[in-house]
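Worked example 3. Consider a protein that binds adenosine-5'-triphosphate.
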Amino acid sequence: MYLKRLEVRGFKSFASATRFDLEPGVTAIVGPNGSGKSNVVDALTWVMGEQGARALRGGKMEDVIFAGTSSRPALGRAQVSLTIDNSDEVLPIEYTEVTISRTLFRSGASEYAINGTACRLLDIQELLSDTGMGRQMHVIVGQGQLDRILQATPEDRRSFIEEAAGVLKFRRRKEKTERK
Ligand code: ATP
Ligand code: MG
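Given these inputs, the predicted complex is written out as structure tokens:
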């Protein structure tokens, strides 16, 4: 399983439909300051179901919709689609390619789809659960965080890795039980 394609339209600085074809392995996005690199990561987080505007570096969810520039009017909707290669059948669905989509209208209405069929956010969350993706599963190391990790004490660094590996919640549970 790997992320195969990300398509954004009307999302943050991406007014026109923009498509990123990804290969297995490491992908690097380079570009000048303010060119939209972090917005690509925001689009990924968003399509996987992020509900917090702050996690998307905005004040309210509507801020993900293209707000317009001096030469281009604002748009009425943001849309992001993520295509996942599922030829190894990690996702519990009988398609070798799975596209999840999310659309937000200025009215506040939201739409979600799996392979073009409308669904609930819950369906996307369930599809992604047990894959290492989706809510609370993947780890995104934000800008500036890298310095913090490099300069952290060994204990803090360990707890960050534990968080990423998903064992921190078990440690917390263990400590809570031991205190009783
Ligand atoms: P840096 O190298 O400084 O981290 P970056 O490439 O990560 O830059 P982003 O933070 O992804 O840049 O993009 C910032 C740009 O996106 C800003 O110019 C901002 O105005 C624009 N932007 C963010 N939200 C919207 C929106 N809703 N509508 C239009 N433009 C937006
Ligand atoms: Mg950035």
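Take a moment to read the result before moving on. Residues 12-13, 31, 33-39, 63, 65-67, 143 surround adenosine-5'-triphosphate (ligand 1) (CB under 6 Å). The radius of gyration is 18 Å.
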